[in-house]
Structure formats: C-alpha cells, structure tokens
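Researcher: Please predict.
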Amino acid sequence: MNKRRIATLCLIVVLAIAATTLHAGGQAPVNVPQNRDTVTITRQEYERLKQYEILNEVRSYIDHYYLHEPDEQAMIDGAVNGLLSGLGDPYTFYYPADAWKKLWEEDEGRYAGIGVQMLGDYRDSSVTVTRVFKGTPAEQAGILKGDIFYMVEDLAVSTQTMSEAVDMMRGVPGEKVHVEMVRNGEIVTFDLVKAEIIVNRVEQMMLPENVGLITLYDFAGDVAPAFIQALNRLVDEGAKSLVVDLRDNPGGWVDDGVAIADAFLDRQVLYYTEKRDGSRNYAYTTDGKSDIPLVVVINGHSASTSEIFTAAMKDYKRAVLVGTKTFGKGITQQVVGLSDGVSGFQFTNAQYFSPEGHQVHEMGVTPDVEVEMPEDLADRYFAFGDLSDPQLKAAYDEALKLADNAAGVAAIK
C-alpha cells in the first residue's frame, strides 16, 4: 500500500441531491446561486451524475415505501461498498468510520482483538492465519498458523469479506467473538474473548558464530526505525553477517520498505511502478548503507512490500535468498481519506516491478537456495532463532559462508 493519503469527494454524493434540478449545459463551471434550488454544471458532469441516477431512484422508493425508517449512513456505506466491489479486486475496499479508525489503531501496533495476522489469497479467495501473536486469545484458544478462516460469527470469510471479518474480530476488550477455521479439511470452532493486542514488528538476536538475526513481521508502525536500531545493536555486538527473516510477512507500507532497503543499497532504484496509462514512477534508496553480508529468508506468504525488498536484493545480488517462492502480490494500493473526515477506502493504483523490470505480480520472487519446509513441520511453531527450523538453518549456513569473506561491518548512523 502506498502511504499517501489524498482527500477526495465520494461520487455517491448523488444520493443526497434529490431536491436539486440538474441542467445539462456547455462547459461552464458549476454555478450555485445561494437563493435558488438549481445548479448549473457542465455536460460532462451531468452525464457522469446520470450514470448514478438509478441509485437515487432506489433511494426515493426506500424513503417513501420501506417498512422501517432507513439508516442513511448504512445505506451510503453499502452504496460505496457496492461501487468498489464492482471492480472485482480483492485489494480494493471501503473503510467505513469504525474500520477507518481501527486501521490506524493497527498501524500504531495497539488494538483490541484476538491476536492473529491474516493473508488473503486472490487466487482462491481464501484467508489464512500467517502468525499467531504470543500471549493472545488466539494462542490461548489453540488457533494455529496455517488455519484457514471459514466463518466469523455468521459471516463467511473470503478475500472479499476479509475487511468486514477483521472489524468483527476487533472491538472492546472483553467482547466475545465466534470463529470457525478449516484445519486439515475439518471445521474447528473457537469462542474467543477479545483482549488488548500489542504487536511487536521486529525481533533480533545473535545466533552462534556472530550471525545476526532480525525477523520482520510486517511493514507498519515504527518498523523502519526499529529495524535500524536492531541492525546497529547487532553490529555493535560484533555481527559478521545478517539473516533477515521475511517469512509470512504480508507487506504493508511501501515507504517502510524503502527506509529499510536504505540500510543495504546506496542511491539505487528499489522498484518502479507502472500505472494504467503506462506512466512509471521510480523509487530510490539514499546514501548510508551497511556492507554487512545479507541473507533473506522467504516463503509463499512473503507478500507485497516484502517482495519489493526481496526482488531488489536479488537483482543487485545484495543478498542470498533462501526458502521458497514468494506469494506474488505485485500491485500497490493507495489509501484515501474521504471528505467526511471519518471514512476512507483503498484501491489498486499500480503494478510494481523490480529494478531490472521483473514482474512480481502473480509471479513471485524465486529464492537462490530453495528449501521446502517438510510437511510434518509446516504448522509447527518454532521458537525465535531455533535452528531446528530447516529454512532458518539453511539461511544460517549461507550467512556463515558470507561471513568468511566479510571485511568488516560498520553501524548505520
């Protein structure tokens, strides 16, 4: 997702102009006399509003004949949802007021919920648990990484309803929520009590032989400064090489990915995006990189910003990639705050490519050293830094090889 926020007007404002007479004119600007009930707009604007006339027709029937007093805001929310769902894009959706507020609570790393990280798969519309946070209701109830969401209360969960499902699993500590998961082809049910969740986005430790390890769980909140702090701490402790674990990292803010890539690349193209009209926008890193030998661990749930970072490291041969091919979400979303000040939406606005022009969307990034996770270990929870984890062990071995050739490592200031 792109971190820019742009104020805009919602087209569904047409629902609120039932008493206004529209005059199709030439290309004159909008004229709104204070003492009249008509406005003059351009023919282009008139034709655009005519496209939404049927919504106003439905609204008129509801106002006059619906059995109950309608909830106007709920109708507006539903209309916007319908407009966006017509795009058929699982990454484009509306944030009504409550969801908009919760979006920024999550970005701050503190919210009330059940304590899971989710990833939606546009290929089959499934939504999978990719991380269970420690000490949370989800962990205590026995939800596991790899569980697939089936129902939240009475809502069938898919990529199309994922945002709504998230809203239902958040709220006030002490609230209850019923969740059903698919595990090994069977339905597993959970009745959970929401609690305050504190998200740690970065963990670091020193592995044997002075190999540093940093795990990034997503790209949000304070992840960029936290990563630089962790890197510098490991370098100060004598790290000779570094493993960055991006497995199950679903992505997040692109700006955070650029800030972290700054630690490893000087004045290089990190990626470029291409829009519908073919125009391109290039993102660059800045000066101040560390020369520490680097290994990046990836898997099929490493997505979006994780792939932007990984693809660049591969193109420049800045890192050895270990694990399995990444997810393949190579499109960016723009998050837009609407004019009411309390709601917003996100929409897909561009496709991104690696510095050398490699497509990531639906293709993924292939590792240099492929290491499949054995089936019997796929759902196992490994403690942080546990080298019985086959993929981490392979990355560690690569880091040892790189350390043999390292001339010395300096911290980033």
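Model: Residues 11-95 form one domain.
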